[in-house]
Amino acid sequence: MTRTNAVSGPANPPKAQRRPQTFALHNYVVEDPYAWLKDPEYPKVNDSEILQYLNDENAYFDEFFAPHSGLVNTLFEELKARKPEQDESVPFVENNFSYQWRFAKGAQYRTWYRSESLTPLTDQNVQWQTLLDENTLAEGHEYFRLGALSVSPDGQKLAYSVDTNGSERYQLHTIQIASGEALTKSIENCAGEPVWNANSDGFIYLIVNDQWRPNKALMRNLHTADPAADDAVVFEETDESFFLSADLSQSQQLVFLHSGDHVTTEVRYVPRTNLLATPQLISQRSTAHEYYADHQGDDAQSGRLLIRSNLRQANFDLYQLALDDSAGKPSTRLDPANWQNILAGDERTYLTNHLVFREHLFVEARIDGLDQMMVVAQNGESHLIEMPEESYSLGFGTNADYGAKFLRLGYTSMVTPNTVYDYDLETRVLQQRKVQQVPGGYEAKNFVTRRLMATARDGTQVPISLVQRHDTPVDGSAPLYLYGYGAYGHAIPPAFSSNIISLLDRGFTFAIAHIRGGDDLGYHWYTQGKLEQRTNTFNDFVDCAKHLIETRYVAPGRIAIGGGSAGGELMGAVVNQAPELFGSVAAHVPFVDVLNTMLDADLPLTPMEWPEWGNPIDDAEAFSFIQSYSPYDQVSAQDYPPIMVTAGLNDPRVTYWEPAKWVAKLRHVKTNENVLVLKTNMGAGHGGQSGRFTALKELAEEYAFFLLTLGIENKPEAPE
């Protein structure tokens, strides 16, 4: 590895106008001179000055990378070369058909297939029929994403949804599979996956309102003369802070209508045979009570509900409720005291998910922070599935067959590519079905992975997972890429990435900080990083960086950091707190204008976000605390490391003006000349560009930014 001079930005970066604007609340006065960057017509963005500013920033971004296009292209070709030209999923069975997706050679999007063979893994003469070609649907669109793909129970009809601008307002189509003929008019502004009724002549679908909140489930009957006019409302969620979703039970007998924000849920169900039946409430909403249900049984009137709830234990318990016992007795069902606890969580055991088959129950758990899979037989006996490594990530694969004799699992570690296993429920043997291909050769023996424990400033032990080449020195000379997220109880697993090899081969160590705000070590790990404890998340990340410096994995100023969305908020907070530690920053669609966003109840996500961040409209203490860490509000006159920022014009989750305002303020306030660039995808949303190869171009730009700003030579080191 060779260190060269760091790269500064081109001269004359864009400078957004500062237009005085202040507001007062709770005896605080807030100045926001860049508030004008929010188009008052949003989600439409037509203001010419705003568009001109964003385009100027894009031009500056291109100007910065223009002399380094060779580096970006080299990285892009490396990343692309590690993706198989052709790829395919392990087939799965559902409703007497087998299904599979494939990437054709060089294709950006999947093609979906199905077969009448129910043994495609052993049938040498299996015949596949094209079900849907995403590449055809994507033609002519700058952006494309398939939202849902749902086949009717009779196997004759297909409902699918598409997003062609990144707004996550999907258009739902319904066709006859044999002919491709449309069965009904397409439906705009949809969310989630439609759920067919048992007769295959109607389905439940969800629509989003003007605030991008899925709030209404409707039933479309394919037999009516004017389906669009005759759609019946199955359920409407009126609480502006709750999102609605619809899911088919694993038994395919019930449809669950799930309302919830980040900490409170409420679930109803209807029989699949009658989607217009009165939805039956399982348990009424109670603040901070989360519960999730599935059904085990062969009809909608019998069997049992399996309910995972945090009412007693923050790490969740698993309960059962017999449907036939509660028939006609809603009070029995509504009172959780009548549920039977069949599996208890505790301080070490965190129940994270569950799944039912006809004869088995499966529970994902995290025990002492390590993923485990529990198999529970009908007689109540249980066992854990033994996995081949000490540290790994494990979860459910595609398990659509309710009567299956095996459980499909997804497995990975920081040195083991994504692997699909089938676990035989009778023999208790794992059978490997697929290992992620890494073209060009990948040898796990060339890499080592470790788990460290950093002591945070309040004494809490925070895990760090890392991977590096076995010959990378641990003497402070190597660069390091530290990644984090830390919000919504979302854990970042120690998983394999073929992309990160491009940095590892250039001498980097890659590390994940398992900071509070995620649920990596249990539900308490989440609650200790939210609301009035939110700053633990930022402090943990900084303290992890300091621990990596103290243990000589890296030196100050040689750390590249990255995160997106709430992880982008993390980036903004830590560079305000300890900019001297970091040598390069990638902040993707960063949630950095926390105070202003939480004050705007008309924005798509704000009301449902208050349980996560606090409600500064009604609560003066929440206002003061959010302002004290909000990255945009806390930008100060100090030296900042080089920063690369991305945004999406159509992003409904983190609106485009948040990163735009942050960059504008940083340009005005920061005291050094380190490069600061902003790229706004003008035809995309929260996830950036679509297409499996196109998306890699943006990752190549990020990696190039790290190399350039840390002054690292492009050429990867040859493995020993």
Strand-residue fraction? 25-35%
Q: How would you name the oligomeric state of the polypeptide chains in this document?
A: single chain
Query: How can the largest sheet be summarized?
Result: 8 strands, mixed
Number of domains: 4
The CATH architecture classification of the largest domain is: 3-Layer(aba) Sandwich
Q: Which superfamily, in CATH terms, is the homologous superfamily of the largest domain?
A: Alpha/Beta hydrolase fold, catalytic domain
* Radius of gyration from CA coordinates: 26 Å
Average pLDDT: 93
Q: Kindly report how far apart the N and C termini lie.
A: 14 Å
List the helices and strands and how they pair.
Layout lengths: L21 E4 L2 E4 L16 H18 L3 H13 L5 E2 L3 E3 L2 E7 L7 E5 L13 E5 H5 L6 E7 L5 E7 L6 E7 L10 E10 L5 E7 L5 E8 L5 H4 L1 E5 L6 E6 L5 E7 L4 E7 L8 E4 L7 E6 L7 E6 L7 E6 H4 L3 H5 L5 E4 L5 E8 L3 E8 L2 E8 L4 E3 L8 E4 L9 E7 L6 E6 L5 E6 L11 E9 L5 E9 L10 E4 L17 H4 L4 E5 L9 H5 L7 H16 L8 E6 L1 H12 L4 E7 L5 H5 L7 H8 L6 H10 L13 E6 L8 H13 L6 E6 L12 H17 L10
Parallel strand pairs: 33-34, 33-35, 35-36, 36-37, 37-38
Antiparallel strand pairs: 1-2, 3-5, 4-5, 5-6, 6-7, 8-9, 9-10, 10-11, 11-12, 12-13, 13-14, 15-16, 16-17, 17-18, 19-20, 20-21, 21-22, 23-24, 24-25, 25-26, 27-28, 28-29, 29-30, 31-32, 32-34
Helix pairs in contact: 2-15, 9-10
